[in-house]
Design brief:
Helices cover about 5% and strands about 55% of the residues. It has 3 helices and 50 strands. It has a 22-stranded antiparallel β-barrel. Strands 10-16-17-14-15 form a 5-stranded mixed β-sheet. The longest helix is centred in the N-terminal third of the chain and has 29 residues. It is globular and about 95 Å long.
Length: about 800
């Protein structure tokens, strides 16, 4: 058998044609797939509403099976790009039942409450709207509903709800402390606050302005620890963000509420929202709050006050306007006016009569609930503010301008000695003009979130204050002489440039870094009485209520006048780990800075704080348990410490302190059932001065230099524990809500000197509220009790030695009981 092999030679032309045909087919297939894919990708727009058909901000919108997602904006709207035809959209929000729906352009999703889980809270702490549980910042949150249920209309009452927050009430100067870090100076022109406070982005610098009323509030955010990157100077302790209720488009609604309680207290609130066409709306809100005096004076009418004192009388109004011409542009403007017209903030006082020439370290005396006064004094504060925000979404980049202007005018006659007869009192006329402007760019893309901006602030202060001596009027034919008088003008300017970005290193790990450069300039000028009225014959004397004017005989330029500037770079570095949607762990280091300034003795420098913190935020047990915790350590340097020198000089501020803080915080909520919720908050704080050499007042003599290393800073209780319980009873078709909250604070000092009478002993404070809510929340009626124990809590303590030689204390409100009602329309 013979094998025959045949070799067939390939045809090159034929092969070339075959290859060309093959590539043409591949190209056509790719084109077809591309066209099909392009045709199947679309942009979906929609809206999410809550159980009351209100827009639900911050709702998560995700294409099922992908990482393609977004969140709803202030109006509940969302835009989701690159959605394939036939896709399923997952709509979720903590506290609501998750929904899976077919993707449709123009879809409106109505969410249903999940009674078995906790509700989500959306915050703007990082200048973007996001769940509080996803922000690596320790914070306390208070809703407007909570404020209403407890009858709270005063900023100082927030410390009952946020255990890390505390206030000193030094006459009409309200001083803020967060985690024990704050400012203790009364004279408003001398020192800035250590905590930044803002209302809708309008920054408030002066402690006098904090006496404004709270009304028509959406929520309050208390951010703990230095916030120097995003909030700039004077955020050493943290930041307090007050967010007022905003106008809502295409909705007509409102509410009216009334409250009456003991001490003849009455509060009225009203708000109405009106659409202006389809793209604009206005919101008008107003309030009044008054009460009789909390304390009684039974002095002989011939020499003192016979009646009550510590009354209150505040009212305010706000007009907000929102316009949204298109999906990208939003403009919000609000004007506000606040009026306070009441008696002065009272002080009880005694004159130590032992250990002359020594500090009153171990001096002890009983503090009464009621006491006799020579006069109740007076306090009138007018505040007018305008603020606004303009934002434009360029698609991937959001540009925002936020600005505000505030004018504060205070006139006050402030009795100081706190007993009969009237010895020393202060005549005050304070005027402040403050403005702030910020331009910010925000952007967010896959795995990268960033923001950068510029800030400018300017403040003009005119502080005219004089110490008068009524007890000496007999030596001047019945006229009351000025012992001293200072008229100080201070201008402050601050500029800043900042940036912060978060980079996703993986699906679970992210790093945030931020920097801010701040430059502060201050100048001061003014005049004072060069010598008191008891000088040699011919010494000019001035008498209340006619203070001297610049250039009058016996006056001259204040000592310490001049110019100064300070600059600082503050930073943030944060590493966060999110193994699931419900768990967040973070570790960060951040810095804070408070600018320097002037006193009549000269210039003092800026103070700085470096904070180290690790924390975690979690939803557990099918989101029925929210459990957050943090451990922090502060190194606080060049601390500004205030001390009274004498009647000629007044107060001084020195960079005297360096202190260390270490704290542990655990807080959360647990939904035991759809009708039962527990809340808890445990704070441990160990704070101590490592260095503190400063002037200390003595009994009946001049101040002396003392080493106070080892002392505790003011407002630093070792333990603060808060527990709360809420239960809902079904009553007909409505509900009866019962709330109980109790706070325990271990003992703490009100001043860095740690005198025995600076100490507030450990106490508990319990608040109760009971509210019936009708079906659909159309109306409600409730009752509350604040400070059930009727504890007398010290708000402020101070000893001024030398020729004044008076120890003073200011006290918080007694037990308050009230009824309230609210109608929604």
């Amino acid at each position: 058998m013979e094998l025959i092999s045949t070799i067939v030679k390939p045809n090159p032309l034929k092969m070339k044609n075959q290859q060309l045909t093959f590539f043409k087919c591949i190209l056509c297939a790719v084109c077809i797939l591309f066209c099909v894919s392009a045709q199947s990708q679309e942009t979906i727009k929609g809206k999410v509403l809550d159980e009351n058909s209100e827009p639900l901000l911050g709702t998560s919108i995700v294409v099922k099976g992908t990482n393609n997602g977004t969140t709803t904006d202030f109006d509940g709207n969302f835009i989701l790009n690159n959605v394939a035809s036939g896709s399923t959209i997952i709509v979720s929000y903590v506290g609501y039942i998750r929904k899976e729906l077919p993707a449709q352009d123009g879809m409106v999703v109505s969410m249903e409450v999940d009674a078995n889980s906790l509700k989500e809270v959306i915050v703007s702490a990082e200048n973007r709207n996001v769940s509080a549980q996803k922000v690596p910042i320790s914070m306390d949150l208070v809703s407007g509903v909570k404020l209403q249920d407890l009858g709270i209309a005063d900023l100082k009452q927030l410390q009952n709800l946020t255990p890390s927050l505390a206030f000193n009430q030094n006459t009409f100067f309200t001083q803020v402390f967060i985690r024990g870090v704050g400012s203790d100076v009364g004279a408003a022109e001398l020192q800035d606050q250590a905590a930044t406070l803002s209302i809708d982005g309008e920054f408030i610098n002066r402690p006098v302005a904090l006496n404004a009323a709270l009304f028509d509030i959406e929520r309050i955010e208390v951010l703990k620890g230095p916030q120097g990157t995003l909030y700039g100077r004077n955020a050493t302790a943290g930041a307090i963000n007050i967010l007022a209720a905003k106008p809502k488009l295409n909705i007509t609604d409102g509410n009216v509420s009334a409250q009456y309680g003991n001490y003849n207290s009455s509060k009225l609130n009203a708000a109405v929202n009106l659409p202006v066409g389809k793209k604009a709306a206005i919101r008008v809100a107003a309030m009044s709050d008054s009460h009789d005096g909390y304390r009684e004076s039974n002095a002989d009418p011939a020499v003192g006050l016979n009646g009550d004192f510590d009354n209150g009388n505040v009212w305010g109004a706000r007009l907000g306007f929102l316009v949204k011409p298109n999906e990208n542009l939003k403009i919000y403007v609000a004007g506000e006016y606040n009026k306070t017209d009441q008696q002065a903030i009272s002080q009880y006082g005694v004159q130590p009569d032992s250990n002359e020439g020594q500090p009153p370290t171990n001096f002890k005396t009983d503090l009464p609930d009621d006491f006799d006064l020579a006069t109740a004094g007076s306090m009138e504060i007018d505040q007018a503010a305008i603020r606004g925000r303009i934002s434009y979404d360029f698609g991937g980049v959001l540009a925002t301008y936020t600005g505000g202007y505030r004018n504060v005018d205070l006139t006050a006659y402030q009795p100081l000695n706190g007993f009969v007869p009237e010895t020393f009192s202060f005549d005050n006329s304070l005027k402040y003009d403050t403005q702030s402007h910020e331009f910010r760019l925000n952007g967010e893309s896959e795995g990268f979130i960033w923001q950068t901006g510029l800030f400018y602030g300017n403040e003009d202060q005119d502080a005219a204050r004089g110490l008068i001596l009524p007890v000496a009027s007999g030596a001047f034919g019945g006229d009351v002489p000025y012992l001293n008088f200072f008229d100080i003008d201070v201008n402050s300017q601050t500029t800043g440039i900042f940036g912060q970005a978060t980079l996703s290193l993986s699906e679970t790990l992210a790093f945030t870094g931020g920097l801010r450069y701040t430059k502060d300039k201050k100048s001061s000028d003014g005049f004072n009485i060069q010598q008191g009225p008891f000088g040699p014959p011919g010494t000019p004397a001035y008498f209340y209520p006619n203070p001297p004017q610049q250039g009058d005989a016996g006056t001259g330029q204040i000592p310490g006048a001049g110019d100064g500037s300070w600059n600082q770079v503050t930073y943030l570095a944060n590493l966060e780990y999110s193994p699931t949607e419900d768990n967040l762990f973070f570790a960060k280091v951040s810095t804070g800075y408070k600018s320097g300034g002037f006193t009549v003795r000269g210039e003092f420098d800026a103070e700085n704080l470096t904070a180290y913190e690790i924390g975690t935020k979690n939803y557990l047990a099918d989101r029925r348990l929210r459990l957050n915790g943090s451990i922090f350590a502060y190194n606080y340097t060049d601390q500004q410490v205030s001390v009274f020198i004498n009647t000629e000089v007044g107060a001084d501020i020195e960079n005297a302190g360096e202190s260390n803080y270490f704290g542990v915080e655990v807080e959360g909520d647990y939904m035991l059932s759809p009708k039962d919720k527990f809340s808890f908050n445990l704070n441990y704080l160990n704070a101590e001065f490592k260095e503190l050499t400063t002037l200390v007042n003595t009994v009946g003599a001049d101040a002396i230099v003392a080493d106070l290393a080892g002392n505790k800073p003011a407002q630093t209780p070792t333990w603060t524990i808060v527990g709360g319980y809420n239960h809902k009873f079904d009553v007909g078709k409505g509900t009866l809500d019962l709330g109980i909250s109790s706070m325990f604070k271990s003992d703490y000092f009100l001043q860095v000197f740690n005198f025995e009478m600076d100490r507030q002993e450990a106490y508990t404070k319990t608040d109760l509220n009971l509210t019936y809510r009708s079906p659909n929340n159309k109306w409600e009626i409730g009752a509350f009790v604040n400070n059930l124990e009727d504890n007398r809590i010290i708000n402020y303590a101070s000893f001024n030695g030398g020729t004044i030689n008076i120890y003073n204390w200011n006290f918080g409100a007694p037990r308050l009981i009230g009824l309230r009602t609210n109608f929604n329309f």
